[in-house]
From TrEMBL:
Signal sequence interval, chain numbering: none
Molecular function in Gene Ontology: hydrolase activity
Domain Adenosine deaminase: 22-360
Enzyme class: hydrolase
Organism of provenance: Cellulomonas iranensis
PANTHER family the record matches: ADENOSINE DEAMINASE
Keyword annotations: Hydrolase, Metal-binding, Zinc
Residue ranges of the TM segments: none
Protein name: adenosine deaminase
């Protein structure tokens, strides 16, 4: 790992250290991480109109449009990325580039989620969508390896919670469980579309011993998270930041937890927290006051994620750097949440242990900087 005692200053050292740290990403949307230049090129090919055709200006537009403070408005920005992801070639390219971009940021394992039902406008079957994405990830992994980066990218299939195709997507996930699909999810507007609308799909995957994660606790509150856990049987909570509503910090600095918060903490349910995205959708006011720091200190199983790299103009290294710089995190905290993410991938236990070892080994290597010894 890169030493922090270099002459070019602590800011550069922190960035280099975070990029060099092997990282795990549990919550990242494929259609939220398209390169702006790719959106421009593929939009021209399919005749889709964009706010601007300058890639840099388009990148700024996505961030500004997503920063409205409204989750529904945030979700509207995806019309431009989905428009270029309707063919097998488009999907393969986007998936390949996602794997390369993540690998360049030091991500060694990524669980990319997307909703196959949103990629059928040009006639692709659901299976063709999954196949194209899988092929793109494999191409990206191979190219990253040639560039000296090792990464594994797997799929989490999301059903749109405002639609009625969850049973189809659950069956699709199970049909591809030995072909790179590791989990099932529901995504989209949280308020008004609870997990109970898709109870049969969750029952199907649960009875097949297949893991599920659910977007909950971002736009909705404790009831939404309770349904995700107790109706959907979620093994992870996508976002989950609103569990902080059930945690009180006493004047002496101790934490008083409500019933649901105890359930989540006691059972080590991972929270897939996405700081910058939460600021944009109004789930948090600032990185400095983001509830994930309180949750981490209170003993919850916190992981840090990107959600949508294009809409937030971010990377996993950047998200972690913001927490160090603005929320007072040490790099020991960074290592802790990274290990937590590795422990809660939807891989098998032996694979998770190997992933944890890959993360912590650099911190134990003599002659390298241990992550927790420095602040920014």
């Amino acid at each position: 790992m890169t030493s922090l005692d270099r002459p070019d200053g602590p800011e550069q050292d922190l960035d280099a250290t975070l990029r060099a740290l092997p990282k795990v990403l549990l919550h990242d949307h494929l259609d939220g991480g398209v390169r702006p230049a790719t959106v421009v090129e593929l939009s021209a090919e399919v005749g889709h109109a964009l706010p601007t055709t300058d890639p840099d200006a388009l990148a700024r537009w996505f961030v500004d449009a997503a920063a409205s403070g409204s989750l529904p408005r945030y979700l509207e920005t995806f019309e431009h990325t989905l428009a270029v992801m309707q063919t097998a070639d488009g999907l393969r390219r986007v998936a390949r580039e996602a794997a390369l971009d993540l690998a360049a940021d030091g991500v060694v394992h990524a669980e990319q989620r997307y909703a196959p039902e949103q990629h059928q406008r040009a006639g692709l079957t659901l299976q063709q969508v999954v196949d194209a994405v899988r092929e793109g990830f494999a191409e990206g992994e191979a190219q990253a390896r040639e560039q000296g980066h090792e990464i594994r990218v797997v799929q989490v299939l999301s059903a749109m919670r405002q639609a009625d195709r969850a049973d189809e997507i659950a069956a699709l996930a199970l049909a591809n469980r030995d072909a790179g699909v590791v989990g099932f999810d529901i995504a989209g507007p949280e308020d008004g579309f609870p997990p109970s609308r898709h109870a049969s799909a969750f029952r199907t995957v649960r009875e097949a011993s297949f893991p599920a994660t659910v977007h909950a606790g971002e736009d909705g509150g404790l009831d939404s998270m309770a349904e995700a856990l107790h109706v959907a049987g979620a093994l992870r909570l996508g976002h989950g930041v609103r569990i902080a509503d059930d945690v009180r910090v006493e004047p002496d600095g101790t934490y008083r937890l409500g019933t649901l918060a105890h359930w989540v903490r006691d059972r080590r349910v991972p929270l897939e927290v996405c700081p910058s995205s939460n600021l944009q959708t109004g789930a948090a006011a600032s990185v400095a006051t983001h509830p994930l720091t309180t949750l981490l200190r209170a003993g919850f199983e916190v992981t840090v994620n990107t959600d949508n790299r294009l809409q937030s103009g971010t990377s996993l290294s950047r998200e972690l750097g913001l927490l160090v710089r603005e929320a007072g995190w040490t790099l020991d905290d960074v290592l802790a949440v990274t290990v937590a993410a590795a422990r809660h991938t939807f891989l098998h236990e032996d694979e998770r242990r190997a992933l944890v070892d890959r993360i912590v080994r650099p911190a134990r290597t003599p002659g390298t900087a241990r992550p927790g010894r420095h602040r920014a």
